Every structure is written in structure tokens, then in C-alpha cells.
Amino acid sequence: MFDALLRLQLAPIVERLAQMETQLEDLYRRAESFCRIGVCQEVDAASNTCKVSHGELLTPAIRFFNPSAGAQTETRIPTVGEQCLLLNYGGGEGGGQSVALFGLNSDRFPPLSSVASLTSRRYEDGTQSAYDAAAHVLAWNNGPAAFSGSREQVEMSLGAARLVMTAATISLQVGAVGMLLDASGVHLSGPVVDHQGRVISTA
């Protein structure tokens, strides 16, 4: 009789403990799915959404972060195969309440530079821009190029056009034609130099 009375008194506590165990398991599950590494599988640029795989799961179409989205706006569409940090703010397993934060380098998309002072950007067609804050050098190449930074300058392979600006010079090169501006003047190079249709120099 005493055991039965004890069980009767403890029943609400046991039930509450069981509820708390279920809630804790749910919280653990949600915490594990809150933040994951994912890979972009599909992109819909028109709706600014993408689908991301994480483990064996695939999210529905979700939004992705852009560099800025206010009065100053910059849009950058992610690439299929690009890694991201998947933030599941809803906590569910379906991924419908998730957003993707892209910009994680991988073997497929490695960093452009290992120089701390060099900020580089490469576009899909191979065009690249770079600024070396230590050397105060801005460079631009509108064709396939490879930047490598140093504290003296930014080096580039030649493409269709090449522009390099330093604190002392501005250099513009298009094929064999070039122009250099420095403290001593303007220096032109190339097979032909003309002024308003009049040839003033030939190679």
C-alpha cells in the first residue's frame, strides 16, 4: 500500500521529467541543425534564391546573403558547387527557414591570394581587380589574369587591357600599346602615335 501511495505521489514528477527529457532531445536536435556547412546545388537568379545540400538533405529554395542590401546595395549570385554556411533560424529539419551565407573557399574555389594586404576579386570571365593596401597599388585586368601581391607592386599576366596605379605612376597597356604617367611626364609606346588623326610618331 505504501508503494502504491508513493507511485501515486511521484507520478506527476515522473511525467514532468519525461516531458523535460523530450524537450531537451528536441533542443539538442534543433541545435545540431541550426548551423551547418552546405554546398550550392541550384540557383534561381530571378528570385535571388538557391538550393543547398547539407549531408543527405537538400533545402527548398532559400534566400542567400549579399555583401550589402540597403541604401547601398551589392548583389552577388552564388555559383553551383560553392560552399556556404547554412543558418537554420527556424530550427526545423526541412531547411525551409534557412538562409545561406556564401564565401567559404574550397578546393574547387581556392583563395585568389595569400597576401594579407591584398584584396582581390575575379569575375567569371577571368577579369580581375586587386588593391594592395601596403604598397598603395591598384591593378585591373579585363582578361584572364593571375595576380600575385608583394609590398612593392601587384603583378599581373597580360590580358586584353592592363591598368596599374601606384602612388608615383599610372600605367595603361593594351597589347603592344602603352601609356605611362609619372612625375617626369607622359610616355607613350606602340607602333603608331597620332593626335586628332595626324600621325606624330611611328615605330
From TrEMBL:
It comes from the Bacteria. Pfam families: Phage_base_V. Residues 37-92 form the Gp5/Type VI secretion system Vgr protein OB-fold domain. InterPro entries: Gp5/Vgr_OB, GpV/Gp45, Vgr_OB-fold_dom_sf. This is Phage baseplate assembly protein V. It comes from Pseudomonas proteolytica.
